[in-house]
Amino acid sequence: MEKQQPRRVEDASLRVPTLRPGAYQVRWWDTREGNVIAEERAAAAEGGLRLGVPPFTEDIACQIQPATP
What domain count does the chain have? Predict the structure, then answer.
């Protein structure tokens, strides 16, 4: 907006309430460059999955898949 740099977002979190309890593989993507910027294995409990979002300045995306053993 108004040719200003976006503010860096830190300490954000995400909750996905519809996922069943279990293990998941999570990948965070830089949508401008098309690169994976972070990967983690996370566990969902009753009530869904809670994730810490990596710091970002522009758009990012999250891919969540069931983890393979």
Answer: 1
- Structural tokens at position 43: 């566990």
What is the value of pTM for the model shown?
0.84
Spatial CA neighbour of 18 closest among 64, 61, 68, 69: 64
Residue 7 placed within a domain: no
Residue 3 binned pLDDT confidence (cut-offs 50, 70, 90): confident
Closest CA to 55 of 32, 36, 37: 37
pLDDT single digits (tens) 24-45: 999 999 999 999 999 999 999 9
List the domain range (segments joined by +) for residue 62. Answer: 13-66
Dist. CA 47–CA 7, nearest whole Å: 31
